[in-house]
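Task: sequence design from structure.
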């Protein structure tokens, strides 16, 4: 799978409201998302083919380009198909609440769980990172004019993803 195709699978949601404003119509949306193949970084420059086991770092940078502080800033990023989230890799340079979804973004929690039946009893177990589908960073407080919010996570290309081809790509 080409790294450039991985970039195309990333869809970002951004919610930001100017302080004291209830409507979202004037919400700033400048968001830059990059993906960098950490495994290939030491190899031939220009390599754009991600191989099974490669670790991809996604960085999201939001810049408040308005003239006033914004609050309720949330960065929501789906984990692209064929990638497995690396536990503990979600981070931000600012004070944020990080939550994860295992149900395609329908709900979020800091510690997703799955319910298993063990000896006839329902038991909650931590969801494995391979089940994570989305990550959400919620900025605590406001983002002042000109300030940036930087969030990132890492994911590993699963072995089965190497066989996936983008539409129109030769097999």
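Answer:
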């Amino acid at each position: 799978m080409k790294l450039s195709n991985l970039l195309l699978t990333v869809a970002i949601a951004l919610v930001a409201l100017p302080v004291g404003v209830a409507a979202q119509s004037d919400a700033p949306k400048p968001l830059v998302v990059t993906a960098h193949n950490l495994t290939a970084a030491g190899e031939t420059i220009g390599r754009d083919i991600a191989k099974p086991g490669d670790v991809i770092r996604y960085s999201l940078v939001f810049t408040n380009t308005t003239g006033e502080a914004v609050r309720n800033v949330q960065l929501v990023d789906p984990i692209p198909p064929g990638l497995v989230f690396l536990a503990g890799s979600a981070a931000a340079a600012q004070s944020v609440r990080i939550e994860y979804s295992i149900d395609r973004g329908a709900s979020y929690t800091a510690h997703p769980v799955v319910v298993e039946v063990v000896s006839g009893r329902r038991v909650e177990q931590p969801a494995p990172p391979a089940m994570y589908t989305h990550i959400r960073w919620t900025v605590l407080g406001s983002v002042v004019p000109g300030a940036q919010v930087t969030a990132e996570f890492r994911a590993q290309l699963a072995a089965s993803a190497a066989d996936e081809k983008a539409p129109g790509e030769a097999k």
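The first strand starts at residue 13 and ends at 18.
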